[in-house]
Amino acid sequence: VDARDAGQLNALLEPLPLSAALRQLLTLSADDRDTVLELVPTELAAALVEEAPHAAATELVERLEWDRAAEIIDVLDSDLQADLIGDLDSEDAEAILAELEPEDAADVRRLVAYEDDTAGGLMVAEAFKFPVTATVGAVLRSFVDEDQDFERYRGQHPYVIDAEGRPVGVVSLRGLLVAKRSEKLSAIMIEPIVVTVDTMLDELQDLFDRHSFLGLPVVEADGRLVGVVSRAAINAAALERAESEALKLQGVGDELRSMPLWLRSRRRLMWLSANIVLNVIAASVISAYEETLAAVIAIAVFLPMVSDMSGCSGNQAVGVTMRELSLGLVQPKDAMRVWLKELSVGAINGLALGVLIALVAWLWKGNVWLGAVIGAALALNTMLAVSIGGVVPLVLKRLGQDPAVASGPLLTTITDMAGFFLVLSLASLLMPYLI
Amino acid sequence: VDARDAGQLNALLEPLPLSAALRQLLTLSADDRDTVLELVPTELAAALVEEAPHAAATELVERLEWDRAAEIIDVLDSDLQADLIGDLDSEDAEAILAELEPEDAADVRRLVAYEDDTAGGLMVAEAFKFPVTATVGAVLRSFVDEDQDFERYRGQHPYVIDAEGRPVGVVSLRGLLVAKRSEKLSAIMIEPIVVTVDTMLDELQDLFDRHSFLGLPVVEADGRLVGVVSRAAINAAALERAESEALKLQGVGDELRSMPLWLRSRRRLMWLSANIVLNVIAASVISAYEETLAAVIAIAVFLPMVSDMSGCSGNQAVGVTMRELSLGLVQPKDAMRVWLKELSVGAINGLALGVLIALVAWLWKGNVWLGAVIGAALALNTMLAVSIGGVVPLVLKRLGQDPAVASGPLLTTITDMAGFFLVLSLASLLMPYLI
Predict the structure, then answer these.
(1) How far apart are CA A255 and CA B320, in angstroms?
(2) Domains located in chain B, CATH noted
(3) Between A and B, how many CB-CB pairs are < 8 A?
(4) Which of A257, A369, B24, B200 would suit a FRET pair with B391, their CA atoms being 20 to 30 Å apart?
């Protein structure tokens, strides 16, 4: 790498699976990564950028010279171009756009304006389209002629547009082959299913689930065909969303270890510091009962157990609700049904766990009343935890908040506080039997 | 629903998005679900079964009469057929297979035998194939004639097979259109990329990332073409895996609230009971220091804080490693590099959090030494937690265990124990300054 030997670098990276090549690239220092991306063939560099997770790809591109960045971006599909350009700062973005062909640059500018998880943000600007007056022969000839661009349209059916650029039909491959070459497209086309640029990812997933299309035409508010959103792009976006939701729960979002140390520390710390505040609130419940605790010190052994166990039960309920939300099987208005379902699981599991921990406490510390206090507290707190865990994501969704981010910390704080309070207040009540 | 009015049911469900229709179906009692699936048109019933998550689909089908189940299964793609049949108990499976056409049933039997996340388990048995001696004209005619089956091959390129059934070529649509109709396929075909039935999901994802194919031909060990694995099937499998990994972390796997109460309770309890054992182990550390705790009861307030905060830090590291594993950016052999990276983040964050919590403890309880004990314990435990969290998934993977399931509980137990131990042993050492 240090020798800047382009041929050898290429020979090294080319035969590797892309993910392995990317892994190699990301273990290098930032300067060495630049060198590699400058030296390898543009196609390979573009493939590496495409394989890289979002944040890493942006970082790779923004460090490059503008003309090299433009060369690499030029090879990518227009939806990826827009994702990258949209994440760069505006000076870099403008400079790179200036290096692209004016027409491509205009496409990218247009795509950048759309929201990420909408048809506009997920589509490619290139559509395989023909005027309504064209003949079957013209389409077949274009299959053959459009050498360069054909790949870009992969999987797309030819769309038929009217004089105003609105999609009025779609033609099947079979239709093209059966028809006479002189036939007008208007005679063999069928009505297309179109989506608007602001159609959301969930709805797009549903459409692709219901139909076997590989792509859907996307129109602006005025009805003009502006792009095509592919099944593959929708699947990739859904996969990315599923992965990032799980990580947002822990405050690490899209972190990769190849990112700078300070950035990684700062982002994790932000989330942890917020967590400290919640922890202090929960701990203040213990602080209020220090006398009880001092009298029966064995309780301190079981405090973390009760709060931790109910936290786990609650998180199970959060997990099921999040999954049902993402599968579209539950909506905020179903909160009551979800609560009843969770309450029944909570009653069974709370009872089982309560009896179990009561036995443990009794046998360990030799006081049956201590067992009763701990067991009752865990049983009640489990029912509370699953109720909150099942319903909180729905309430957050209803309030327009992201349930993936806020549900966990909210749940843990409440179950910690309630767990500490239940154990310590029950112990205070039954103090004569515990000492 | 109770009136068993097929027409009205269909009118009710048909216009809904599939996910909404499925939501309606799953809120019904099990008996009513059976009624609905018996009454609605087979296509709609099949679409609902297809939309349902894996476990729910199996449950829906296994409750139906065998002949109705066979009607519905007959409409599905063969990969889904195999998934469903494979999950039924063998009596149901045999009875349903007996109702299918012998040829279809044989296909399904064959598919069931393959592992889930391999090309064999993800492929459809129908391949769009032609003998090497066929002409371009024959292929084009089959596009037109194979009315019924054409849809099944969507997105597939025609594969060319030799006399032994081995794929020797693949033909592009463009090639077909450019060539003369009398030309032999052998003249225009290019060499295909083939995968074997035991190719793993990760490798398939990588192949589809590198190439723009919509499908790949799958061969048996003897080289015979036995099916085609599509890009869509790979994407769906990857999405399902990402979602289920996050949930396995909490012991809820593929639970849906429409499942029977006892099943849901039992599965959650199994995981929670294992967790209780880990909790008892951690709590025994506190138990060993009851004297220290009795002397400085304020420590009890901070014990759960230290263990909880380090648990969060460790889980962040687990999250990043799991993501890098799933992106293929890290491998078990990188454990040392990951550890050093985590150690630096841990040092910074541990210091920051330690100072923060030390100030809180000092100001709250009015003893600077108490602050020092708590702060030092949190700082050290944070470094330990991120080290374990970053490396443990890699070690589990190396040992052939599933890192998604075991990393969380293992981490939490160790950080709890270490946190309790650090706080209480430091407090024992500095006891004269704390009282």
Answers:
(1) 6
(2) 6-113 (1.25.60.10), 129-248 (3.10.580.10), 261-434 (1.10.357.20)
(3) 309
(4) B200
